[in-house]
C-alpha cells in the first residue's frame, strides 16, 4: 500500500491503531507532506502501531510484501486497523 493519509474519518482527533500478524512487513512512516523523506520500520508478528495527535495525518504505507513463511499464518500477513469514523 503506497503512501497515503487516513483523512476520510469525521473525527481526526481519534488515533489510528494497527495490529500486524503473520509475515514481516516494512512500514513506511512519512511526513505531513508526501515529499518529506520517509523512515522505514519492520513490523513483525504481534507488533502494534498507534499514532494520533499532531502525527495523525502523516503519510504512511507498507512496502510490497516479500514472500516468507510464518509458523502461525503460513505465507500470509494480516493487518487489522482501527479508526473512529463517527463523532
Average pLDDT reading: 92
Percentage of helical residues?
under 10%
Number of helices: 0
Low-confidence stretches: none
Q: Approximately what portion of the residues adopt beta-strand conformation? A: 25-35%
So what's the overall shape? Answer: globular
Protein structure class = mainly beta
Biggest sheet character = 3 strands, antiparallel
Explain briefly what this protein structure is.
This protein has 87 residues and is mostly beta strands. The chain has one domain (16-82).
Provide the fold topology.
Elements: E1 16-22, E2 25-29, E3 39-43, E4 48-51, E5 60-62, E6 77-82
Antiparallel strand pairs: 1-4, 1-6, 2-3, 2-5
Textual characterization of the structure:
- With 87 residues, the chain is mostly beta strands.
- The chain has one domain (16-82).
- It contains no helices and six strands.
- The chain has strands spanning 16-22, 25-29, 39-43, 48-51, 60-62, 77-82.
- The strands form two sheets. The protein has a three-stranded antiparallel β-sheet with strand order 4-1-6, with no helix packed on it.
- It is globular, with a radius of gyration of 14 Å.
Amino acid at each position: 500500500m503506497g503512501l497515503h493519509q487516513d483523512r476520510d474519518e469525521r473525527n481526526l482527533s481519534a488515533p489510528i491503531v494497527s495490529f500486524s500478524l503473520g509475515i514481516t512487513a516494512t512500514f513506511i512512516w512519512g511526513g505531513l507532506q508526501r515529499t518529506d523523506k520517509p523512515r522505514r520500520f519492520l513490523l513483525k508478528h504481534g507488533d502494534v502501531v498507534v499514532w494520533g495527535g499532531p502525527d495523525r495525518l502523516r503519510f504512511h504505507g507498507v512496502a510490497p510484501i516479500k514472500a516468507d513463511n510464518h509458523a502461525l499464518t503460513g505465507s500470509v500477513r494480516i493487518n487489522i486497523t482501527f479508526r473512529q469514523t463517527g463523532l
